[in-house]
TrEMBL record:
Residues 1-24 are annotated as: Disordered. Residues 123-250 form the N-acetyltransferase domain. This is Predicted acetyltransferase, GNAT family. It comes from the Bacteria. Keywords: Acyltransferase, Transferase. One of its GO terms (molecular function) is acyltransferase activity, transferring groups other than amino-acyl groups. The lineage of its organism: Bacteria, Bacillati, Actinomycetota, Actinomycetes, Propionibacteriales. SUPFAM superfamilies: Acyl-CoA N-acyltransferases (Nat). InterPro entries: Acyl_CoA_acyltransferase (IPR016181), GCN5-like_dom (IPR013653), GNAT_dom (IPR000182), YpeA/RimI_acetyltransf (IPR050680). It comes from Microlunatus sagamiharensis. Gene3D superfamilies: 3.40.630.30.
Length: 250
């Protein structure tokens, strides 16, 4: 499970409520909307099933999880033993069809920004590039904010903070459904926490997202109540529950 999600499993998802006016058809299928929209150039697959390259992200999506043909298409995109990460309906008994076996699930929540979110640049933040991937991967391995692959940084802008030359905090852009951009990989070295570094980076990434005319949103584990409280205080709103499921090709 940790190979895909890099996080723990919780059994009691936080209650979420839809944000007024949110476009359910887009954010309820955020990965599919990204892979058929602004991230289509990353997509591998068909009109019914798509995935990111393995070195970009572990995520995949189906046009409909109820369509056996879509699952068959998806199976054709994975080698036996390879794991796909999908968002599936929360609060339901769910299992994959033939050709797949469950590999774990994490209850999560989706949050969207509101007008209350103050966003502005962080003067100390630097844009991360290919030369920073090794350090970013090490930071992610030590803090476990979620999956980060060698080419994840190509999905959008990633910002970092350095102390004494070391990368100690980062945040960036991941899924990009039309009109929306997900803020992800928010993490801080344990030795530098409680200094507001991650908060500043989230505001800075949100500022970049808004400059393009997009709306920031994010996901987190329902078990990460501290992060949820922080995001709510910043001006995000709980929109929905989501279940992150890993399935292994057999």
């Amino acid at each position: 499970m940790g190979r895909v999600f890099d996080g723990g499993v919780t059994s009691s998802p936080t209650t979420a409520r839809p944000a007024a006016g949110s476009p359910a058809h887009t954010l309820d299928a955020a990965t599919w909307s990204a892979l058929t929209g602004p991230h289509a150039h990353f997509a591998i697959g068909t009109d019914r099933a798509r995935r990111y390259p393995a070195d970009v992200a572990p995520f995949a999506a189906l046009e409909s999880t109820d369509d056996p043909a879509a699952w068959a298409d998806l199976r054709g995109l994975y080698a036996t033993g390879e794991v796909a990460a999908l968002a599936v309906p929360a609060g339901t008994a769910w299992s994959p069809p033939d050709g797949w076996e469950p590999d774990g699930a994490i209850p999560g929540v989706q949050l969207v920004s509101t007008a209350a979110l103050r966003s502005f640049p962080d003067e100390e933040a630097v844009r991360l590039g290919p030369d920073d991937v090794a350090e970013a991967t090490d930071l992610v391995a030590r803090t476990e904010p979620g999956p980060f692959r060698p080419r994840t940084i190509e999905l959008g802008t990633y910002l970092g903070l350095r102390r004494d030359g070391r990368l100690v905090a980062m945040a960036g852009e991941r899924l990009h459904p039309d009109g929306w951009t997900e803020i992800s990989a928010v993490c801080t070295d344990p030795a530098y926490r409680r200094q507001g570094l991650a908060t500043g980076l989230v505001r800075a990434v949100a500022d970049l997202v808004r400059e393009r005319g997009d709306v920031p949103f994010l996901h987190t584990s329902a078990a990460n109540t501290r992060a949820i409280r922080l995001y709510l205080a910043m001006g995000f709103d709980l929109r929905s529950e989501v279940q992150f499921a890993a399935v292994r090709a057999v």
